[in-house]
Write a structure and sequence with these properties.
Pfam families: HEAT_DAAF5, HEAT_GCN1, TPR_DNAAF5. One of its GO terms (cellular component) is cytoplasm. GO terms for molecular function: dynein intermediate chain binding. The chain is mainly alpha-helical and 743 residues long. It is 69% helix and 0% strand. It is elongated and about 145 Å long.
């Protein structure tokens, strides 16, 4: 031993050969094994040699030194503890060696050094062993499991270090290797059983009365023993701060294993986690902002356990406040994410009494429409889905609040996928109430929904979410909205006044145009809109068709004209009603024919055409004579589509002339009309020539002689007199026929 100590125990090792150093350490290890406790007098020499050889550059020498350390500690435990501390530093330098077998040997040696030492160095090695929990080598992780399990069972001062050692063993219960998981679980059961036996007097009452699982215990999960649970409960206060720190570690592996450990701890703590609820929620909120999905998923599983074991009255008091006033401005959705998970773990009988409180909070404007981020809306929708799944038919009592949330989510959503999910949730809400379709659900709550919108209608702008809610409600309710036309009109009369925000009016007028095109299936499904159609036309549409300066005002006029055309086409107004308002309707409608917007002119032409088709034969001659000059102007329009519709309207104008229209009294009007049409009979476009010819043929019945003279006057001036000849021929055929007898 003096020779070995001189050659290997000094500051500089004198043996340069790696093979000789390895053989010498093997001989020393064999000497320890053979001599046993007789090695005690050479404690100093052994310690000096091991301190140097454990950090030897040669990996095999390191391994052999670690094995020798373990044997020596077991052989002379009565003396080893006096200098065991001197080996901690070299072992910690070796425990992160690049060779996995060296790391395993170093961990095993560390176990022996701590076990047979003074026990004061646990704090020095715990952090190093914790890093080995994320080692790529399963053998290294297994070595940590065995060493820590042995400490928890046999370390003399283990009670002082339970809070340090428990996480190391419990973390490996979730290891990806089945062998390590089973070994960790088996060691943990032994630790719990031993502690239970050692503290039998202190937990006598619990042994007698708390062996049966609590109600609503997670199905398919084996309940840990009482000793295991008590160990976690008594150390949870010390473990939570460490979890809080490690769950935001810069290493992904650390965050994942920490989030797994949190679930294990909460499963053991059961209802005792209530007293640590605030810091636990803080941990979950932080972890849910992680970019790693595994971390988030593990924490949500832990949140479900909180919902299972913590009374709803307790966690809702804290969590609803966090939802209302999020701690993180940059991540306001985290309280909703955690709340949905906690509600998912809460048993239905316990959650039912608090259902109204939860839904009332979610439906508050400050919550459901405060943020427009997709992730926030997803979590809001997740809360609704959890309530529908957990409470099922019990959601009937809070159906209105849930419907408000779903309508708001759809209003704010910019993602089609999120909108589809909200619609699916709406269908589930119908199903749990025994309703066949969302339309029936809207019928039940339409009165309250209208009141909900009316509260703020006077202050609506283009930025108001309520206009989008209105769109969702009236489009999804289908024919049901026809039962509440009176309430709808109250809203429209307030938000579509000329002085209101232009962009907001455009949006609502466009929505109404779509509804009016399908009036029998929407607003007029019950025939009630006819009672309001004149008021809608005179008090809403016509004021918005009055000319005002600006492009936005022009766009509003276009939307109003579109709505007018839809009203006429959809059958939501009768011919008799059109006749009653014709005097008010004509000026703004004919003025719209002069709009700068091609679309506005086109819609105005179609509106005139539709009115002539509906009531042309009933119009007063003066009204008819006010129409045709404006249509003639559109024959020179830059848009071929506008010209075509104007020609169609002129054809309907001739068709609608009745006995009250006297050709002799209105000869000047007819002359102007014929002259302008004959000009376009020579249009460069042959299709226009054909249409004009057909219109003039219709006009030939009104005043044949006038048309004949006007045609003959321009025949020779036109590039191609063919159309004039055909027109003259048609006039001769009309005048040669005997007049139809009057009855």
């Amino acid at each position: 031993m003096p020779c070995l100590a001189q050659r290997f125990g000094d500051k500089d090792i004198l043996e340069p050969s790696e093979e000789l150093r390895l053989s010498t350490l093997e001989m020393l290890s064999l000497t320890v094994e053979v001599c046993g406790k007789h090695m005690a007098p050479y404690l100093n020499e052994m310690m000096n040699i091991l301190q140097r050889s454990i950090v030897d550059p040669f990996p095999d020498v390191k391994r052999e030194s670690c094995k020798c350390t373990t044997r020596f500690a077991k052989c002379v435990p009565e003396h080893f503890h006096m200098q065991a501390e001197s080996l901690v530093k070299p072992l910690m330098q070796t425990v992160s060696h690049q060779h996995s077998r060296v790391r395993v040997s170093a961990i095993e040696a560390t176990g022996a050094v701590i076990q047979y030492g003074t026990g004061k160095n646990v704090n020095d090695v715990v952090s190093h062993l914790a890093q080995r929990l994320f080692d790529d080598s399963p053998q290294v992780r297994k070595a940590v499991t065995v060493v820590v399990g042995h400490w928890l069972l046999h370390l003399p001062d283990r009670y002082s270090y339970f809070h340090k050692l428990l996480p190391l063993l419990l973390t490996n219960i979730g290891d990806e290797i089945p062998e390590i998981r089973l070994q960790a679980a088996d060691l943990w059961r032994q630790v719990g059983a031993q502690w239970e036996k050692e503290n039998e007097d202190d937990i006598k009452d619990k042994l007698d009365f708390l062996l049966t699982p609590p109600p609503f215990y997670p199905s398919g999960v084996e309940r840990p023993g009482l000793g295991c649970r008590e160990l976690v409960v008594r150390n949870l206060g010390r473990l939570v701060p460490a979890i809080t720190h490690d769950v935001t570690d810069w290493l992904v592996a650390t965050r994942i294993r920490t989030s797994q450990l949190l679930s294990v701890l909460l499963l053991h703590a059961e209802d005792h986690s209530t007293q640590h609820l605030q810091p636990l929620l803080t941990v979950l909120y932080r972890a849910c902002t992680d970019t790693e999905k595994d971390v988030v998923n593990n924490c949500l599983e832990a949140a479900k356990l909180l919902g299972t074991f913590v009374p709803p009255a307790v966690f809702l008091k804290l969590m609803l406040g966090h939802v209302t006033y999020p701690c993180s401005v940059s991540h306001p959705w985290t309280p909703l994410m955690v709340l949905s998970a906690v509600l998912g773990g809460c048993p239905k009988p316990l959650l039912k009494p608090h259902l109204e409180e939860v839904t009332n909070t979610l439906a508050q404007p400050d919550i459901c429409q405060q943020y427009q981020q997709v992730v926030y809306l997803e979590q809001l929708l997740a809360c609704v889905d959890v309530l529908l799944h957990q409470c099922d038919s019990e959601c009937s009592s809070v159906s209105l609040q849930l419907l408000k949330v779903l309508v708001t989510v759809q209003s704010l959503s910019t993602e089609p996928e999120l909108t589809e999910r909200a619609i699916v949730s709406l269908q589930v809400l119908c199903k749990v109430q025994g309703l066949d379709s969302p339309q029936q659900l809207y019928r039940v709550h339409m009165e309250q929904l209208m009141d909900w919108l009316c509260t703020s209608v006077n202050s609506w702008t283009s930025y108001s979410l309520e206009r989008l809610k209105l769109h969702i409600i009236v489009t999804q309710s289908g024919p049901v909205i026809g039962e509440f036309v009176g309430r709808l009109m109250q809203i429209l009369l307030k938000c579509l006044q000329p002085e209101k925000d232009h962009e907001m009016k455009m949006s609502i007028l466009t929505m109404m145009a779509k509804l009016l095109l399908e009036a029998p299936h929407t607003v007029d499904s019950q025939g009630l809109f006819l009672e309001h159609s004149e008021k809608f036309l005179c008090d809403i549409l016509l004021p918005n068709m009055v000319w005002r300066a600006g492009r936005t005002a022009a766009a509003v006029r276009t939307a109003a004209i579109s709505c007018l055309l839809a009203l006429l086409h959809g059958g939501a107004i009768t011919p008799a009603q059109v006749l009653r308002v014709e005097v008010k309707l004509s000026p703004p409608m004919l003025s719209a024919l002069e709009e700068d917007s091609q679309m506005a002119r086109l819609l105005a032409c179609r509106s005139v055409s539709t009115i002539l088709r509906l009531v042309g034969s009933s119009l007063h001659p003066d009204a008819l004579n006010r129409i045709y000059p404006e249509l003639l102007k559109r024959l020179d329009d830059s848009s071929e589509e506008v010209r075509a519709v104007a020609l169609e309207a002129l054809g309907l104008w001739f068709t609608g002339l009745n006995q009250d229209y006297s050709p002799d009294l209105c000869v000047s009007h007819l002359q102007l009309l014929f002259q302008q049409l004959l000009l376009h009979l020579d249009d460069p476009d042959s299709a226009v020539q054909d249409r004009v010819l057909e219109i003039l043929k219709k006009g030939s019945v009104v005043h044949p002689s006038l048309l004949k003279s006007e045609t003959e006057a321009v025949r020779d001036k036109q590039r191609s007199p063919g159309h004039c000849d055909r027109l003259l021929q048609h006039i001769r055929s009309v005048t040669s026929q005997p007049p139809t007898p009057q009855t």
